[in-house]
């Protein structure tokens, strides 16, 4: 029995039995050429592998902190700093989020009106004169009727966020993870920062186009811009109505301090050809689900050395924190955000826990974590603008932080106190001695934030170069 009779490949691949000398020569030539091409590919791959090994490792930054602490906003500042053109090309998508934010504020107001007009006040902090149900005058009732359809638009926009058209998602974001929409505390959430953006960009629009008008599909029948434009006057009147403010106060809602508040700029955000400014994009609120990795190239102060930076933005909601730990390995730096203006608030997801206490507990657990002991830790005591406004409005810090005692109820004193407390925790709880890097920040203020981020970038590049042995 011949070998080719039992080997199925040999039978197929064997040269024909009646092959002439000429045919044999030509076949062997083809085989030599094919082998040479294959060897060249192998060599190229090997060279690329060697090169990748010699490339400096990327600098990795992890953004941590509770929900609404400002992590995604800090990431937006990084993007503005190093890829402003690409950032601005996404304005069309952020326009949709601002619109969602406006409608969300309307929903909160309508809910507060309903609650206050039907049920007696239950908040212990309300004044006794406001215990009766609020009476909604005919003007307010009419406004409510006219604004209710906006809530349906909210649902439509949310659906679109959840499932961008197949065409958009395949052409612009192939390979990206699926989007999820979850209602965490009634907020719209996505877990990918690119696929949802594609859902609001006009088909065929250049992603790196600077002209935002190009990217917005002004003829889109589902665009809520027309409805918002037509109801601009109603929105203005709603926000100016004293009963609305009374209702919000009764419910303990300070809308102006929450993320995505645009009612003070209703004329701008409802204008016919509205596109958000950088400032509006920074203030737009979209809750993060899961962990998103963003890559960018940053150059040192002298413009000589460029490094790849990878920034990881996580969701801060309590139910999402279990997803953080796998990212702790091999991180160069953690920027921890503590929103210090939240001293008088409770966690939305766990109303019995104070937001400040939660930030302190999180900070302590990050410091104690041995896996992170060699990671640079940078603390942002964030939302100082809101802290300042709160203290000036008479809200007493010592009512919520009793250890503050009789110190003055002003911004300098309260922020200094918190800085000292966070520093003391680092000193007491860190497994190894560490430097305390801390900034008082307002990350919706682009200018001051860029200043802080440039300092962090330079520091990380220096440390990175030292670790790579490139400088002494
Ligand atoms: N006024 C003011 N608003 C801020 C500041 N930092 C963040 N915000 C706003 O607060 C809201 C929440 O900020 P995000 O950056 O989305 O918070 P996050 O930490 O990413 O929240 P999650 O994604 O839920 O974990 C956004 O609307 C921001 O624009 C600040 O320093 N001052
Ligand atoms: Mg976020």
TrEMBL record:
GO cellular component, one term: cytoplasm
Signal peptide bounds: none
PROSITE patterns, sorted: G_ALPHA (PS51882)
Residues binding GTP, per UniProt: 282-288, 382-385
UniProt cross-references to SUPFAM superfamilies, sorted A to Z: P-loop containing nucleoside triphosphate hydrolases (SSF52540), Transducin (alpha subunit), insertion domain (SSF47895)
Binding site for Mg(2+): 288
GO terms, biological process: adenylate cyclase-modulating G protein-coupled receptor signaling pathway
GO molecular function: G protein-coupled receptor binding; G-protein beta/gamma-subunit complex binding; GTP binding; GTPase activity; metal ion binding
InterPro entries in alphabetical order: Gprotein_alpha_su (IPR001019), GproteinA_insert (IPR011025), P-loop_NTPase (IPR027417)
Amino acid composition bias (Basic and acidic residues), ranges on this chain: 22-51
Matches recorded under Pfam families: G-alpha
Alphabetical UniProt keywords: GTP-binding, Magnesium, Metal-binding, Nucleotide-binding, Transducer
SMART domains: G_alpha
Stretches for region Disordered: 1-53
Record's protein name: Guanine nucleotide-binding protein alpha-4 subunit
């Amino acid at each position: 029995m011949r070998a080719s009779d039992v080997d199925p490949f040999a039978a197929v691949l064997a040269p024909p039995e009646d092959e002439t000398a000429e045919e044999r020569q030509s076949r062997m030539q083809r085989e030599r050429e094919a082998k040479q091409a294959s060897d060249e590919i192998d060599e190229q791959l090997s060279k690329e592998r060697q090169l990748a090994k010699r490339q400096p490792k990327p600098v990795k930054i992890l953004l941590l902190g509770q929900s609404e602490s400002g992590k995604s906003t800090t990431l937006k500042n990084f993007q503005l700093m190093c890829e402003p053109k690409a950032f601005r090309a996404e304005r069309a998508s952020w326009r949709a989020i601002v619109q969602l934010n406006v409608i969300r504020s309307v929903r909160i107001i309508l809910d507060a009106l309903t609650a206050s007009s039907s049920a007696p006040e239950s908040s212990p902090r309300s004044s006794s004169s406001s215990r009766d149900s609020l009476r909604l005058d005919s003007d307010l009732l009419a406004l409510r009727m006219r604004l209710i359809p906006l809530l349906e638009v909210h649902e439509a926009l949310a659906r679109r966020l959840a499932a961008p058209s197949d065409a958009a998602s395949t052409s612009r974001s192939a390979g990206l993870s699926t989007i999820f929409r979850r209602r965490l505390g009634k907020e719209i959430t996505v877990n990918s920062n690119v696929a949802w953006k594609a859902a609001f960009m006009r088909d065929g629009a250049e992603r790196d186009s600077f002209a935002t008008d190009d990217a917005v599909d002004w003829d889109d029948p589902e665009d809520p811009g027309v409805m918002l434009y037509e109801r601009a006057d109603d929105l203005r009147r709603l926000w100016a109505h004293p009963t609305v403010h009374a209702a919000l106060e009764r419910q303990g809602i300070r809308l102006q301090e929450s993320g995505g508040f645009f009612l003070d700029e209703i004329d701008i955000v409802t204008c016919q050809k509205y596109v958000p400014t950088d400032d509006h994009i920074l203030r737009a609120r979209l809750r993060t689900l899961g962990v998103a990795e963003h890559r960018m190239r940053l150059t040192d102060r002298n413009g000589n050395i460029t490094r790849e930076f990878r920034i990881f933005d996580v969701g801060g909601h309590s139910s999402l924190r279990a997803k953080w730990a796998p990212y702790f390995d091999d991180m160069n730096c953690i920027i921890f955000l503590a929103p210090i203006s939240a001293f008088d608030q409770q966690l939305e997801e766990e109303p019995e826990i104070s937001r400040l206490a939660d930030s302190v507990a999180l900070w302590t657990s990050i410091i104690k974590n041995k896996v992170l002991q060699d990671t640079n830790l940078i603390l942002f005591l964030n939302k100082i603008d809101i802290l300042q406004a709160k203290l000036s409005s008479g809200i007493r810090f010592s009512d919520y932080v009793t250890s503050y005692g009789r110190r003055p109820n002003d911004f300098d004193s309260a922020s200094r106190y918190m800085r000292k407390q966070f520093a003391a925790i680092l000193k007491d709880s860190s497994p190894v001695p560490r430097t305390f890097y801390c900034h008082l920040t307002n990350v919706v203020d682009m200018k001051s934030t860029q200043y802080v981020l440039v300092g962090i970038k330079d520091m990380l590049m220096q440390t990175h170069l030292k670790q790579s042995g490139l400088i002494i």
